[in-house]
Amino acid sequence: MPIRPVHRSEPTQNTAAANVALVETLRLAVPRHIAELRHRPTDVLIAIASQSSSVIGSKGDALQFHSPKRGAAAEAFNALARGLAAAAIVTHGGVTFAGAHWCIVPACSGPDADHPQPDVTPP
To answer: What is the mean pLDDT of the chain?
Structure first.
């Protein structure tokens, strides 16, 4: 079976390149959203994560496939980054997406790292 060259127009290569670009861009965007959202109340953060998941559910394909609608990919990307940031703040141990991990514990090395137990004392 002859080896055929992979061309940029092939979906598998485009998907792999898009995933690298998406993850590397999220590595920059999510920490910025974390810094912005960090001091918001938990119920607000949960609402942000929920709203973000709705946008991703309805428009997330714009990140994977070309969309003729101007700004659709940007809207989906911002919802994804903001939702991951909100989830990283409220979830003990942070969140992991596509191999990237975000957490509010300083110097967290990943989801299996030691994390201090959350303070669950009643108000």
So the answer is: 79
Angle 76-79-85 (CA atoms, 0-180°, nearest 5)? 140
pLDDT at 68: 77
Chain centroid offset of residue 71 CA: 18
With helix as H, strand as E and coil as C, how does 11-30 read? HHHHHHHHHHHHHHHHHHHH
Angle (CA) 47 102 82, round 5°: 35
List Cα–Cα distances, 80 to 2, 6, 22, 50, 77, in angstroms.
41, 30, 10, 11, 5
Spatial distance between the Cα atoms of 41 and 33, rounded to a whole number of angstroms: 15
